[in-house]
Amino acid sequence: MRVVLGVAGGIAAYKAASLLRLLREAGHAVRVVPTSSALRFVGAPTWEALSGEPVTADLFDDVENVAHVEVARTADLVVVAPATADLLARAASGRADDLLTATLLTATCPVLMAPAMHTQMWQHPATVANVATLRARGVHVLDPDDGRLTGTDSGPGRLPEPAAIVAAALALVAPGDLAGRRVVISAGGTQEPVDPVRFLGNRSTGRQGVALALAARDRGASVVLVAANVTVPVPDGIEVREVGTASQLREAMTIAAADADVVVMAAAVADFRPADPAGTKIKKTPSQAPPVIELVENPDVLAGLAAHRARPGQVVVGFAAETGDEHGSVLDHGRAKALRKGADLLVVNRVDDGRGFGTPDNEVTVLDAAGQVVAEATGSKDSVAHTVWDAVVALLRRS
Q: Cα(351)–Cα(301) distance, rounded to whole angstroms?
């Protein structure tokens, strides 16, 4: 396969060298098309040595072969990493003032952009609008990772890891191993009202569930995301059904699972809820003791979906956020839960010491229904998502 790797002028341009190497090691021919700004970060000799092909940013080089048309015409895939705020703006407005933007304007193959920029630039309304415009035109724009940026700054805007970019890009052109499949995924964390102001909940943002939905979409599936208080953006092409409480999530998942091939319970569901939520805000009164809140157990949504499958061969996947304690390790608790829940796969992830909730990375072990290890993954939540789907696809092929 022939890949065009566009590189825009940001500090993350050096990471594109690793991306190029991964693509080449996978057997793909790669033509690097940098912007002139990108060449101030990484020079043309580096790109030429790694790719084995000539490198230019100028529209007026190789004029006789109409380079901007020829580069796009022969490409099976275009990947832009990093895609800076400026590059996104020029691409969204249809500019063609260098070889990269002209190539983007003439490309008919799948295009994936991996943004990298400062948090304020990523969140600026102009960038938000440009990303929405590009996605509406069919360009696949990844969400940046949340992490360390330049200097001491940290936040959303970090370039996703090269392996995650490669996985997402190749999924656009590989035969979709989930094509024709309908999948339902829950994400986020349920919130159980104590009164109109307060609730019992957890720290889940829904990032891993959204990553699972995105990976399934890119692998060809029709995706429904049941979102429980999700705080991260959901990409286009995914049907979203919003819920708040465990009871609402159970109802929505039961309905959505009726015609699903795969059901994934990635949401962090509250085990308990207040028996009698107050109709008005509970006041703190110095002369009275703090109120006693009676809790009742919520239904086990995952066990219910596994026990009452809507159709033969339906694959049910659960997530178990665990910490080790005096009674056993994370994996010990995960194995016990796998035997108890009855799901085909249980993804066990550690949530102690700052892991799991609200972080860009995850560390998981995938168990089968008997508690045996099927797969392990450590890295970005996007790459973890593909590991989970690889295990699901293996089950689907056996059925």
A: 20
Q: What is the pLDDT of residues 229-253, one digit of tens each?
A: 999 888 778 999 999 999 999 999 9
Side-chain half-sphere exposure of 207, counting CA atoms within 13 A: 21
Pick from 300, 306, 373: which is nearest to 335 by CA?
373
Catalytic residue among 65, 130, 202, 362: 202
Distance, C-alpha 359 to centroid of its chain: 12
pTM of the predicted protein model:
0.64
Pull the structure tokens for residue 320.
Answer: 């178990």
Two tokens, residue 332: 């010990």
**Sign of dihedral through CA atoms 254, 255, 258, 262?**
negative
123 Cβ neighbours under 8 A, 6+ residues apart: 156
Q: Residue 341 and residue 316: Cα distance in Å, rounded?
A: 10
Looking only at Cα atoms, what is the longest distance across the chain? 88
Q: Which residue has the tokens 């360390």?
A: 148
Active-site residue flag, 65: no
The per-residue pLDDT for 376 is 92
Residues 162-184: pLDDT tens digits?
998 998 898 788 767 898 999 99
Helix (H, G, I), strand (E, B), or coil: what is residue 147?
A: strand
In this structure, what DSSP letter does residue 39 have? G
Q: How many CB atoms sit inside 10 A of residue 74's CB?
A: 12
